[in-house]
Amino acid sequence: MNARHRAPVPSLTATPSRRPVRKAVVPAAGLGTRFLPATKATPKEMLPVVDKPAIQYVVEEAAAAGLDDILMITGRHKRAIEDHFDHAFELEQTLAAKGDTARLDAVRDPARLADIHHLRQGEPLGLGHAVLCARRHVGDQPFAVLLGDDLMDPRETLLNRMLDVRDRHAGSVVALLEVPAEQVHLYGCAAVEPTSEDGVVRVTGLVEKPSSETAPSRYAVIGRYVLDPAVFDVLERTPPGRGGEIQLTDALQDLAAAGTVHGVLFSGLRYDTGDKVEYLRTVVRLACERPDLGAEFAAWLRDFVSGLEPGRTERDRPAA
Ligand code: UTP
User: Fold this and answer.
1) Which residue has its alpha carbon closest to ligand 1 atom 9?
2) CATH number, domain at 235?
3) Is 72 among the domain residues?
4) Contact by Cβ (8 Å): 20, 64
5) 148 CB under 6 A from ligand 1?
6) For ligand 1, what atom is nearest to the CA of residue 43?
């Protein structure tokens, strides 16, 4: 980890903002098939990362960027997400009676982060469709989209940089991560041109999950967007694309062709908790960094790893 990542974790309370962007949409209605059977009755966005569900980190990030109105797009597991961001009176009363203020705060925090709304997608017709469901709530204002299973390290400033670019250039803004050629087929991929600003590019085209041979670059679109409301009209007429789903990338391709999409380059820490291996890495890394758990857990981890020879698993270890 480089020095940049040792900065103190910023406050999670909302910062006052005069920005026109106040609303965030958090799509969390996907089927999460890569995480079955855990996601049979639980949304993948509710899987715990140490002791908080993944989606809480995402809502904390939005709130820290001054987005105080958050719309969750949920699917058939609506209840779990709704309950998590609501008050839990019985639990709160019990903890209050015991004087357990630390746990009481942990229970109350999610409901205090922002003004949180919920909308059901009905059918998981794709990320583009999930965003389109937000049209009435968002209205005619620019808005942010944060994918509910895509975590940014709390010390990263990506969303703020994207909101600044929207302020200066209008239009829509995507976040771009340079990935190895063999991984571009997992993402939407952008064709880009440099601008006069460091770390900001103009996006001239977008392709959903291209092969490494046809990809226009190695810049992958990751789960943060600042979108102009013009995207809704485009989404209305976007037909199902790759995988039979209405793809946000396809709608953004239309806007990029019209010259209204910028990209902010990101090279920091980001965790895709919708992928099993990446999820495990995220839990281990964040657990090691926790002041209350890190020392004990890291000591065990060092010992555990030293006993693992390449190609062997814990099961193959001789019994002590
Ligand atoms: P993914 O591409 O990760 O799809 O969605 P998924 O269906 O959730 O997961 P797998 O691939 O089957 O394991 C990216 C984001 O878009 C949301 C998901 O909840 C996730 O946050 N999404 C996707 C929706 O809200 N609605 C959809 O119809 C599809």
Assistant:
1) 32
2) 3.90.550.10
3) yes
4) no
5) yes
6) 19
> What is the total count of domains within the chain?
1
The answer to the question of residue 12 being in a domain is no
121 lines ligand 1 (CB under 6 A): yes
Question: Is 27 near ligand 1, meaning CB less than 6 Å away?
Answer: yes
Ligand 1 mutation pick, 31, 246, 248, max ligand atoms within 8 A of CB: 31
Answer yes or no: is 222 within a domain: yes
Which domain, by its residues, includes 188?
23-274
- pTM reported for the whole predicted model: 0.90
Q: Is the pLDDT of residue 1 over 70?
A: no
Question: Is residue 4 over pLDDT 50?
Answer: no
* pLDDT tier for residue 313 given thresholds of 50, 70 and 90: low
User: How many C-beta neighbours within 10 Å does residue 50 have?
Assistant: 17
102 within some domain:
yes
How many Å lie between the centroid of ligand 1 and the Cα of residue 221?
Answer: 14
Position 110: which residue type? Answer: P
CA-to-CA separations, 48 to 42, 66, 200, 287, in angstroms, rounded: 11, 25, 34, 12
